[in-house]
């Protein structure tokens, strides 16, 4: 009995022995084991499908964030069943059988990928109708047949069919889709495109659906000659095993994928691709340590896979190294928003964070969370005009009505938040001006005091002989302290002097001209609280005055 791993490796051996052909165009890559013609025909079918869908969406060329790699099997009893597109190691991966038209399910998934990558979010009914409608196309060369009903046609499908093929509405679908992408309110979009409301059109579509009388139409696709336009490219003889391993990874068959990648690694040691696949398969299975080992091996091998750089950045504790890895991922796949989103989350600089969010939101216009983060960052930066546009984009990208209502509330309350922010900014500016004015005043006082001190030093000590200042008895009382207050009363000034111990002495000045100022000059008093507060020595005659609350009358003043 053969061991289990033998049956896992057997498809690799068979696939590796095949001669593969490859053709590429736009976002599509086709690898065929059924010959060059099968590869060219499959690529032509993909290009025509993208063309007719893009024409309806008013897009000349549809794109994808990752290439869509399609494997073409030979017809026969051993042929694998077709696999619809799903994300694999470094691309979306799918498979078809040569000369067999893709199934409606296969085309529906492909249409959804193209729709989501190239348009803003449309009303759910419109999107579902488009997917149903284009899942039923038939492509033969450059001729594309549309309008065939699905097995169970829905009202959403009937709306798209009515607007696409009914004589009364022929040509109305394209302007409707364009208007819906540009507007938050769908009703004007419906009226401008069809002259009716959405409810009126749906009512007509319901009757149209009930009649079960649906026309089909064959239209011209993109002019092309697959034999001349799609030149086969060389394929490494050992690529078959890697292609099959990538397909298994995209299908979620991780055990098979890991066995296949291990076999590829044995034949291509040092190549980054099998290490990439082993890393992603291990991470998908929840094996962090094993996944990290293969991530590091892939990086060491010189991987150019953006997914690997991003997964390594997620697990890198050093912020600087993680940011460098994310920038590398964004460089390797400029159409992928996820590295920029993670870079914004880790970016401490507000301006750089804003730039990363803006770029990410442009790449993922259906991601409401990204638009919200961008709107909040723009508000913080004071760019309320841009924030209004981002809140509107978040509202349009919302996946359900509850989220849409929340974003609508945030958008409509933006003016209030702007006024609050402007008021706060004015308050901060006023406070800053007050602080600056106080600093200037303090600096001026400091310079004055330095000048006074310098002048006193240059003047030298006072003469030994001091002439008498006045005639009469010498004041017996003395107080030293800081002049805190001058109360200007009727005919008299009251000085409030605070001593170093905190005690206050109140003295009266009845005639400033009779007060001697040591050092020259005359006594000049300013009523009220003193700014700045000056230190002085006052000699006075004790003479209590209960009415004034003073304990004496000033005779001399010496400013210190």
Labels describing this entry:
Serine Threonine Protein Phosphatase 5, Tetratricopeptide repeat, six-stranded mixed sheet, elongated, OB fold (Dihydrolipoamide Acetyltransferase, E2P), alpha+beta
Topology (SSEs and partners):
Layout: H1 4-17, E1 21-25, E2 28-32, H2 36-56, E3 68-73, E4 83-87, E5 92-97, H3 104-118, H4 124-134, E6 138-140, E7 143-146, H5 155-165, H6 173-182, H7 186-194, H8 198-211, E8 217-220, H9 226-229, H10 239-250, H11 254-267, H12 272-284, H13 288-300, H14 306-314, H15 319-332, H16 338-346, H17 350-363, H18 368-380, H19 384-397, H20 401-412, H21 414-459, E9 477-489, E10 492-498, E11 504-509, E12 516-517, E13 528-545, E14 550-559
Parallel strand pairs: 2-3, 3-5, 12-14
Antiparallel strand pairs: 1-2, 4-5, 6-7, 7-8, 9-10, 9-13, 10-11, 13-14
Explain this structure to me?
- With 560 residues, the protein is an alpha+beta fold.
- Among the domains are: 1-19 and 237-303, Alpha Horseshoe (Serine Threonine Protein Phosphatase 5, Tetratricopeptide repeat), CATH 1.25.40; 21-229; 477-559, Nucleic acid-binding proteins (OB fold (Dihydrolipoamide Acetyltransferase, E2P), Beta Barrel).
- The chain contains 21 helices and 14 strands.
- It has helices at 4-17, 36-56, 104-118, 124-134, 155-165, 173-182, 186-194, 198-211, 226-229, 239-250, 254-267, 272-284, 288-300, 306-314, 319-332, 338-346, 350-363, 368-380, 384-397, 401-412, 414-459; strands at residues 21-25, 28-32, 68-73, 83-87, 92-97, 138-140, 143-146, 217-220, 477-489, 492-498, 504-509, 516-517, 528-545, 550-559.
- β4 (83-87) and β5 (92-97) form a beta hairpin.
